Sequence to fold (542 residues):
Amino acid sequence: MKNKKIFSKLFMICLMIFFYMPIVYTVVFSFNSKKSLTHWSGFSLTWYEKMFSSRDMMSALWTTISIAILATIISTVVGTITAIGLSKSNKVLKNIVERINDFPIMNPEIVTAISLLMLFSALGVQKGYITMLLAHVMFCIPYVMLSVNPKLRSLDPNLADAALDLGATPWQALIKVIIPQIMPGIVSGALVAFTMSFDDFIISYFVTGNGVSNISILVYTMSKRINPSINALSTIIILIITVVLVLINIIPVLKKRGGVKE
Amino acid sequence: MKQFKTMAYPYIVWICLLIVLPMLLILVYAFTKTGNDVATIKFSFENFGKFFSDAIFLDVLRRSLIIAIATTVICVLLGYPAAYIIANAEGRKKVMLILLITIPTWINMLVRTYAWMGILQDNGIINSLLGLIGLGPVKMIHTSFAVILGMVYNFIPFMILQIYTSLTKMDKSLLEAASDLGANKVQAFLRVTLPLSIPGVISGITLVFLPAVSSFFIPKLLGGGQYVLIGNVIENQFLTAGDWNFGSAISLIMAVIIMISMYITKKIDKGEAMEGGERK
Fold:
């Protein structure tokens, strides 16, 4: 028994080293003073200076963050509204929409990417920021609906009817009764949408144009040559994601504590 | 409540335009030849003929499948014990481990793959460590090993989380029943835990095989410019060569292969379930 415990501990430690080595490596070498990804030659902030003064990197950072925020807001609103609408529609229509929603989820991303590329070209749309945003909204909505749907299914349909009987307008019933009940689903949907958009590479890479890049595209095109500024940029991203994750995991705990005190 | 129905209509227009129409475009392009304008569309299998008659493309397809299968097998072999250990850990430790597995998946894949480029270099950290014990340098970057490692690294969290979910859903009293009936630990695992966790393994396989077979930036970054998988061929046709018809045909071939492998995986799953049933 003892041996088994030691074995599983060792196994998990090796796995964690495997998982975190590249992340630690990126952070460490972003502070390297020389242009090498293999030899440590002293601490410096050169690559951060280079990064902050590089217009490409700053605009890629801006594109990534602004698209992620816009795509999250649009896809959460549209996805929630559609999910509510479909829950009141007939089963056939609901099934058809859900099947079609499965396409971007189940298809390899590169297939979705080329299909959108051909669409935008066929329609003669200039590729750039707008096409990237449209594509992100397109692949985020199905995920929002996936996380809202279970909440809607467990929603008591009588509640909204009761609100209407008591004189609420449909709009009021929606805002005051339905939305608050499905809020946890909406929030987790928004979270999924944000990370999907923030991390996306393949679809963005195919539908962008006009020199508009997000961080992933920039890393991909810059990776042909050694460029430790990428490490600095990566470190910033790692920092942002870690802070967001910690906040998400800590806020509910704090809220619960606050609740207990009351 | 019928008045809410109309709220779904705008999205129906949206999916027709941004999901259905683009998929139809792939079909149209795959079955036509370059230079056709819409008015004189002609149905042809030429793109598929071109793919299957060219040894180079068939070789790329074979290599993509081998790499994807190897990645999937390694993910199952490493992911299963990991999921098993986590599922059997105590409360706090369990939450901690799941968080530790999830965090890397939130960090951009490109960024994490780029880091491996430095680690695997001939004079990188792994070769320096090997040098200390008098080994190497071993050529790692720009080999199949590097590509598979990159894929396992990026996709194994999905496998672990899927298996973990199916293991935690399992009714623990079944194991007690098995040991009451005289099964030892190994037997209980093989006869109870393993069969019940197969659905998790199957959905894990789907989540690993699908991105692995279609990946194009992992082979490019870790395999080097000469390392071509099917995803790279598609990227090339669309962004460099400009033959969208051929590119669409290759994507269609890839999609069909993925569907067939999913079907086989599901069949194997059912077959095993039946076998288990007969044994009873």
Summary: Residues 44-245 of chain A form a domain with the MetI-like fold fold (CATH 1.10.3720.10). The radius of gyration of chain A is 23 Å.
